[in-house]
Design a protein that fits this description.
heterodimer, A: alpha/beta, Transcription Regulator spoIIAA, 30% strand, globular, B: Four Helix Bundle (Hemerythrin (Met), subunit A), 5 domains, five-stranded mixed sheet, 21 strands
Chain lengths: 105, 722
């Protein structure tokens, strides 16, 4: 199962596995998109699996947009994204509102 | 532990400590402000008290306790080290010495408090009382001050490990995910707080999506030890940089463990690892870093410093380890510096080495008969080794004379005070070594000589000033090696010996005849005769005419000799010459009429052949040796050996104490390691023989007493001339 990029309600919709196996493919498209748009919203609800490499890409995106004064919003975090973000204590880093369900805490 | 067996050790140790204490007190007189000296004195007293308590020697404990208190006050700067106080403390150390002696004799318990001790205690206590009030007042405010407590951040993270890990770039590519390590870490304890470090994350263009750029700072609460925590990251250890700082609470535990450590490791790293304060990996890394810094900046930072800088350990833990290291090293050094050995064992060893030397000589003799080159060669190696062993074994018995010399500081101080003279003791050659037995036996004669020098040698101050000499008299102790013997000199810059006075007194006492023709040396030596004292007034120190004869007897018992040099008005020097060792010597083997004799090699200066022509020229008892008159002693005549002398004879030129004489022998047989065996009582009166030895062939050879023979040669010649 791969990873797909789609537009959904003006946001970038990621679905599939955001892991080391696809990191190399994701990066160029992600970077290209960062360059073209001033505001980017990424919907993470379809991310079934994420690892450090995947999260690192999201961090890269956040850093890049911060540097160039653009905006990046991550929305609808899937449970696996939330879990990893929580482990790495990165909620503050991304600064997005998170919906934490009862089962996760 | 058997206390009875330990008691002799205590006695010996206490004597050494008392000696140190006394030396310290004497030094304190010279340098009252030196804190090291005071500390050393205090430590000595403290140790004696402590050990005495162990043996239940209450008299020593209670007395030393008071002394210790006074010393403690002195250390605190509350009592100045006045001369009176030093004097009192010296007397106290004498009293302690007396108590230790009593303990050695086993009568300590019966020893009732003496008047002297009571008086000393009263005097010591007078130093304690008034200072006591002041002391309390001074310390009161300091004691009420409350300790400052640290709170806040430090306290909050006090019980947390701080793990700092930077993952290497290849981690992800190698199939590891940092997240899994963190999750696993969660099994060992509680991740209280975690910060992800993103600083290493490069810009988009330079970022490789398959590399890892993350690092974490983790506050981790866990009961696991460092090793367990470190093992979490075991698989990626080579690829990442991990630093695990123990919680401060752990530091206290680590310090405790370090202090309780029973190990002989003397490296800080080893100590830390053994006490579980650091892991081997951390130490290895620190060492690697150390050598890196060394090559880069030529600086050599201690491992401890690196560990603290790297955050591996807190400074107090490192300090504890350093302390421990010092202790272990001290203990090791203490162990390796001195071993107490029963002197009986040492004698036995030397005896056996002696036998080995004889056996070696036998073997070498046999080997020479075989014509077997290889055998002879290997035997030569063995003999060389035996010779080295012999040297080493004898060296074991050698001690420096300095310790004996230092004892005289006290003697000179006390005696000169008693006599009202101002006298300084100068010591030189303290590092000269000689046989322990000799050192032990030379103490008493030296004391006599030093006292004599102070009492008779140095004039009263007014007479010194009148004679244009410095008011302060000088007594010198000097030691040095000279041709196989040790020379000890006691000299003074006093009035010198009065030749006529000695002679008159000797004639008066009938020691010599009035018409006897005596050399200066012989007259001076009369002072060693019993019953001769040139002092008109008898003091309680010397002047009774006993003592000097005992001195000579003691020295002669050590195969030594005494010599006196004196100049009227300038002072005199008494020179004691002692053999270096009493057991084995390098000998020179000679043959007279088929009998072997050994001459101590260090007294042989040369050998000359005596041809017929010289024999014709020989006038009585001397020959002309390169323009020098050399007295000759014919050993054949001296020992009344039967038979005709060999056609070709040899002269062995011997020297001792500045005198020379030739010994006429038949045959020279070369060097020979000689084990001295004492002669039996039967030979006690035999002159010119100092012992015997067994040759390789099993034959017995007499060892010649060269000093006596030289004297005899000189006197025979003198008689003939007269």
């Amino acid at each position: 199962m791969g990873l797909t990029f789609t537009e959904k309600n003006g946001a970038l919709y990621l679905s599939g596995e955001l892991t080391i196996y696809h990191a190399a493919e994701v990066k160029p498209s992600l970077v290209a998109m960062l360059r073209t748009k001033n505001e980017l919203e990424i919907d993470l609800s379809g991310v079934s699996e994420i690892d450090t490499a995947g999260l690192q890409l999201l961090m890269l995106a956040k850093k890049e947009t911060d540097r160039s004064g653009k905006k990046l919003r991550l929305i609808s975090h899937s449970p696996s994204v939330l879990e990893l973000m929580d482990l790495y204590n990165l909620a503050g880093f991304f600064g997005d509102p998170l919906v934490i369900t009862a089962t996760q805490s | 532990m058997n206390l009875d067996q330990a008691l002799p050790v205590f006695i010996e140790e206490s004597r050494t400590l008392l000696q140190e204490m006394e030396e310290g007190l004497l030094r304190l007189e010279q340098a009252p402000d030196d804190p090291d000296v005071l500390n050393a004195i205090f430590r000595a007293a403290h140790t004696i008290k402590g050990s005495a308590g162990l043996f239940g020697l209450d008299a020593i404990v209670s007395f030393t306790h008071v002394v210790e208190n006074v010393l403690d006050r002195m250390r605190a700067g509350e009592i100045p080290p006045t001369p009176e106080l030093t004097n009192l403390l010296l007397q106290s150390s004498d009293e302690m010495s007396a108590l230790v002696d009593a303990a050695a004799a086993g009568i300590e318990a019966d020893m009732a408090p003496t008047a002297i001790r009571a008086q000393l205690l009263a005097q010591l206590s007078s130093y304690l009382e008034p200072a006591g009030d002041r002391d309390d007042a001074k310390h009161l405010p300091a004691e009420t001050q409350a300790p400052v407590e640290v709170c806040g951040e430090g306290a909050e993270t006090g019980d947390c490990w701080r793990i700092s890990v930077d993952f290497g770039e290849n981690i992800l590519r190698n199939g590891f995910d940092p997240a899994s390590f963190l999750r696993y870490l969660g099994n060992l304890g509680d991740i209280v707080h975690l910060t992800t470090k993103t600083e290493r994350l490069p810009s988009a263009d330079h970022m490789d999506p398959e590399s890892c750029y993350l690092g974490f700072e983790i506050d981790f609460k866990s009961a696991a030890n460092k090793k367990a925590i470190e093992s979490v990251f075991e698989f990626v250890r080579d690829d990442c940089h991990i630093r695990i700082t123990p919680p401060s609470a752990f530091a206290a535990v680590a310090i405790e463990r370090i202090e309780a450590l029973q190990a002989d490791a003397d490296k800080v790293g080893e100590i830390l690892v053994k006490a579980d304060a650091a892991t081997p990996r951390e130490i290895d890394e620190a060492l690697a870093l150390q050598s890196k810094i060394e090559t880069q900046s030529n600086r050599h930072p201690p491992v401890g410093e690196i560990l603290v800088q790297e955050g591996v350990l807190q400074q107090p833990v490192v300090n504890a380890a350093l302390e421990k290291q010092k202790k272990i090293r001290d203990a090791k050094a203490g162990e390796s510096r001195f071993i107490r050995v029963d002197s009986g064992k040492l004698d036995q060893l030397i005896n056996q080495v002696g036998e080995l030397v004889i056996a070696g000589a036998t073997a070498s003799l046999l080997a020479q008969k075989t014509n077997d080159g290889a055998l002879q060669e290997s035997l030569a190696t063995i003999l060389r080794l035996v010779e080295e062993v012999r040297g080493g074994a004898l060296q074991l018995r050698m001690v420096q004379i300095g310790e004996t010399f230092n004892r005289f500081n006290r003697v000179v101080r006390d005696v000169s005070k008693e006599l009202g003279k101002d006298i300084e003791l100068q010591i030189s050659g303290a590092e000269t070594e000689l046989d322990k037995t000799v050192v032990e036996k030379i103490g008493d004669p030296l004391t006599h000589l030093v006292r004599n020098a102070i009492d008779h040698g140095i004039e009263p101050t007014d007479r010194r000033i009148a004679a244009g000499k410095p008011a302060k008299g000088t007594v010198r102790l000097n030691a040095y090696h000279e041709s196989g013997s040790v020379v000890i000199e006691v000299s003074d810059d006093g009035g010198g010996l009065n030749r006529n006075k000695i002679l008159n007194r000797a004639i008066e006492r009938g020691l010599v005849n009035a018409n006897q023709n005596l050399s200066e040396q012989e007259i001076y030596k009369l002072i060693f005769e019993p019953g001769l004292s040139t002092v008109d007034k008898v003091s309680n120190l010397s002047g009774r005419g006993v003592g000097m004869d005992v001195v000579r007897r003691n020295i002669e018992a050590l195969r030594g000799s005494v010599e006196i040099a004196s100049r009227e008005g300038e002072g005199s020097t008494i020179r004691i010459r002692l053999p270096l060792t009493l057991a084995i010597i390098d000998g020179f083997l000679v043959n007279v009429g088929g009998n072997s004799y050994v001459i101590p090699l260090d007294m042989v200066s040369e050998c000359v052949e005596m041809d017929d022509q010289e024999r014709l020229q020989q006038h009585g008892g001397y020959i002309n040796l390169r323009g020098e008159v050399l007295p000759i002693l014919n050993l054949r005549e001296h020992f009344r050996v039967c038979g005709q002398g060999a056609r070709r004879q040899n002269i062995v030129v011997t020297h001792f104490g500045g005198q020379k004489a030739g010994l006429l022998v038949d045959e020279l047989m070369g060097e020979f390691q000689t084990v001295i065996k004492p002669l039996g009582k039967l030979f006690g009166k035999a002159r010119g023989v100092s012992g015997f030895t067994i040759l390789g062939s099993g034959e017995v050879a007499l060892i010649l007493d060269v000093p006596t023979l030289i004297q005899r040669a000189a006197s025979v010649e003198a008689q003939k001339v007269a």
